[in-house]
Amino acid sequence: MSLRSRRNKTQPRVLFRHQIKAMAAAADSPPTRSQALSGMSQVYASEPAIPDLFTSQPLIVDMLETESSQLQQKTIDECLPFLSGEQHAGKCNQHGVPRLDKQRHVKFLHKQLGRLPPQMAAADPSRPWFFYWSLAALTLLGEDVSIYRERLVETVRPIQNVSGGFGGGFGQDSHLATTYATVLALMLVGGEEAYKVVDRRAMWEWLCSLKQADGGFQMVVGGEEDVRGAYCASVIISLLGIPLETSPDSAAYAAGHKDLFSGLGEWVGRCQTYEGGVAAIPGIEAHGAYAFCALGCLSILDAPHRSIPKYMNMPQLIAWLSSRQYAPEGGFSGRTNKLVDGCYSHWVGGCWPLIQAALSGPNSGKARSADQQAADTGSLFSRNGLIRYILCCCQDQTLRGGLRDKPSKYSDAYHTCYVLSGLSSAQHKWTLRAARPTGSAGGADEWEAMPYVEDEQVFNEDDRIGTTHPVYVIPQHKVEAAWEYYASKMGF
Ligand SMILES: [Zn+2]
Q1: pTM for the full model?
Q2: Which of 25, 127, 137, 292 has the most crowded CB, counting CB atoms within 10 A?
């Protein structure tokens, strides 16, 4: 109430910045928002090649001052000197964008795979995540991560439980998140030695015990059920070629789910909220990471143009996803009224190729409808805005390297991975070349990545990074190699 009462109720709810300027000129005292006023004179001198959108305060000011609006203003003020080139003097290209400092980022990532300092002890149950984040990011930067194969295999073998799945460390309960991270890390280093670490029969039994009567998956036996579970389980089942039939002695089987994907699309659909985004579970707040988990899961259950519109309200979903990109920052926020953060470059940015495929369908050269043709061209979000945010605001300026949430934060392995994934999907255009036959759950669609060339390119061509599969978030050839290996193992 105290924040709300600061607004004079006779004043309009929102104002254009030029109106505030006129009001300020007409009166000695500012209308209300002091930050908005100080912001007016804070239009940075910009290089002509940087569009005003990225160097100026937002045109519309919400006159209701809240803790959220203060933080938002602080974030804009924090980002503008980076976006305008002021913080990168002499290091920008003609578009006002600095280089991607690959060398420093590679060095940072190799360090994350070595001995970590004592203050990281609290992150011990997340160890498999560090393997995945670092190996995935190194791969995107063009590094050969097979050099880590032996070490990874020796490290993760003891953290696999005989009852199936992987914990965060030795002796810890199996968890879908750490199992997902471990499986992806093994697929990244590749090779038979890595593939055969996974006990697929035990994994199948464990997955059957996580499958719930309502169609979803628990993260851990007896633990929480959410949309991460739906995505992690689908990725594991699909990549490892786990048989879909549920075990006759499982609770899911007794509830009528004869296969692991039964009822899952419906369960995920129930997580879409009144805002149009997707929540962790039905009935709570929509969040960018859960939107990606939902769309990724649905794109495994069936081809995206069939399954996403089947379970999601598309116009509402697109409206909510579009509202996540901010100006002048250019990056994405994860929730309504929250701040931009580099990791949503993937969680929200990674939704767009799946949405694009859902709208366009397979681009197999057949005659296209007018709607499909419209969806084929252009981009559903500002790719250059996102690339600008990533390269200007998310690169750690210190010798440490790595990528970060925003300029006031330090880099970490998590952000380095997901900021780079977001950069990759902004630099490339993914097309669904051919969809699996209708009704083949867990089947494979054919995707193709091409450099995105429809707009002016603001980054240097040398800074183009590798591609990552829009559903599995490891390179496409690593997904195909895993499928090929496990397809040769009939049953278990
Ligand atoms: Zn983040």
Answers
A1: 0.92
A2: 137
